[in-house]
Amino acid sequence: MAGNISTRTGDKGTTGIGGGTRVDKDDIRIECLGELDEANSTIGLLRSKLEKGHDWEPGLIRIQTEMMNLMGHVATPSTSEKKCSAPLPLEEPALMEQWMKEIEESLSSVTEYFLLPGGNEISALCHVARTQVRRAERRLITLHKQDPVHPSILQTVNRLSDLLFKLARQETNRSGVDEERWRLFRRER
């Protein structure tokens, strides 16, 4: 049987972070962790929608695991005497870049335009996760200004949003769904 998750220690608006200290639940570190957790959960939902044995599955599982590890680092202030024991995502940015390169090679065209998010359910979930990752990245930058975050964490989150965009494109391409390009509406003179 699992341990008791309801400790009641947060009833007064604080929560524990790495190193054993407590902070307010609206602390930037907690905001950051919440955004990363939300994005990771959406990637889990995306995975659940894929057919068994889908070629994205191993990469997405690896990414979710790396996100959990990097969240351990984000949860631990740089001044903490107790350091996070999870590995940093040192290789993850390069692995995602390689995956993106493979995706680009599989697509019929390179995009230099904005796409309307959608296509089909899988593609749309990629876009939802992408926007959540971008929001998490913005919160990470705010945290980084207050307490430096390891560069590999910033790089991993930045590459992840790019990868999710490429996955959305690959999904629409594979499923034969046309990409809906955003076009600037201009008044006729």
Q: Which range does the strand content fall in?
A: under 5%
Number of helices: 5
Rg, Cα atoms, Å:
19 Å
The strand count comes to: 2
Amino-to-carboxy terminus distance = 71 Å
Task: Provide structural commentary.
With 189 residues, the protein is mainly alpha-helical. The chain has five helices and two strands. It has helices at residues 28-49, 57-74, 92-106, 121-146, 151-175; strands at residues 14-16, 22-24. Helix 1 (28-49) runs antiparallel to helix 2, helix 3 runs parallel beside helix 5 (151-175) and helix 4 packs antiparallel against helix 5. The model has no long low-confidence stretch (mean pLDDT 86).
Give the SSE layout.
Elements: E1 14-16, E2 22-24, H1 28-49, H2 57-74, H3 92-106, H4 121-146, H5 151-175
Antiparallel strand pairs: 1-2
Structure described in brief:
This protein is mainly α and 189 residues long. The protein is 56% helix and 3% strand. It has helices spanning 28-49, 57-74, 92-106, 121-146, 151-175; strands at 14-16, 22-24.
Question: Main attributes?
Answer:
189 residues, mainly alpha, Hypothetical Protein Ta1238, Chain: A, two-stranded antiparallel sheet
